[in-house]
Q: What sequence folds into this?
């Protein structure tokens, strides 16, 4: 089976936008569609609470004609048009969708950050992990989220193997970003966030990219938009992951970043595993 995960930074812009960036985003979306994955996980959809309008639905259907989708957006008291996640899955799959709340600090559970699909042989979870924020103002809440999320995945894993993915907003090790020496108190590379990710893995989960590629350096999934040369200079971070239950890690065939061309921000990531 094949899975793709991508923080799209506005599904609306990707589907119907006309800016140069929207065109670049749509090109990446077309590359994703061409992979014919079984499930595509999208983060940061930024859709309103009511979801897509008719034009957007038609555009998504044209790009992914053989897929159903499950989505959730932010709702009160969270900000409108913030965060949001969506899972597209092949119509042939037997899927039950859930939109879990994990007891995270308010309003994180209302920000549309997770979709979980239950399939006959495994759970598929996609997540858009909260950022610690400017000045680390949300770091304490982020630490609670990390603990609650680890508990949630562990509970799923007690029933069936888990495939989890998304933008985890953390570079786990120094080799997961280009300039660790300058970022130890930056959101996404604090000791607290890294320890939270280590704790998650210790609950019985494998970082599939490291499982396949070992300690390879210089491979990233995100380049800051505000720095025009970040991608040209490969000054990036690896903050997007596919995690799987330890007991199925030997089924991994591929775990890699996809080409996102000249578009800065997140690149899609791809996981291929042997069928259950």
A:
């Amino acid at each position: 089976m094949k899975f793709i995960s991508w923080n799209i930074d506005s599904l609306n812009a990707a589907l119907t936008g006309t800016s140069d960036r929207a065109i670049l985003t749509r090109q990446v979306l077309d590359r994703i569609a061409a992979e014919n994955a079984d499930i595509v996980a999208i983060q940061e959809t930024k859709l309103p609470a009511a979801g897509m309008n008719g034009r957007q639905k038609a555009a998504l259907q044209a790009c992914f004609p053989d897929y159903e989708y499950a989505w959730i957006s932010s709702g009160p008291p969270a900000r409108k048009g913030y965060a949001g996640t969506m899972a597209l899955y092949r119509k042939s799959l037997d899927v039950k969708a859930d939109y879990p709340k994990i007891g995270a600090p308010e309003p994180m559970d209302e920000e549309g950050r997770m979709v979980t699909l239950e399939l006959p042989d495994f759970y598929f979870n996609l997540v858009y992990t909260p950022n610690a924020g400017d000045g680390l103002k949300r770091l304490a809440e982020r630490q609670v989220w990390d603990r609650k999320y680890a508990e949630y995945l562990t509970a799923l894993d007690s029933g069936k193997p888990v495939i989890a993915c998304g933008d985890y907003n953390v570079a786990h090790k120094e080799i997961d970003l280009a300039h660790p020496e300058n970022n130890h108190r930056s959101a996404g590379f604090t000791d607290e966030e890294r320890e939270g990710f280590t704790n998650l893995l210790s609950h019985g989960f494998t970082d599939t990219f490291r499982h396949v590629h070992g300690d390879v350096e210089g491979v990233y999934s995100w380049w800051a938009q505000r720095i025009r040369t970040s991608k040209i200079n490969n000054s990036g971070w690896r903050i997007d992951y596919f995690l799987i239950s330890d007991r199925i890690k030997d089924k991994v065939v591929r775990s890699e970043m996809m080409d996102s061309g000249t578009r800065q921000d997140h690149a899609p990531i791809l996981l291929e595993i042997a069928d259950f």
Observations:
- The helical segments are 11-16, 20-34, 54-63, 139-157, 191-202, 208-213.
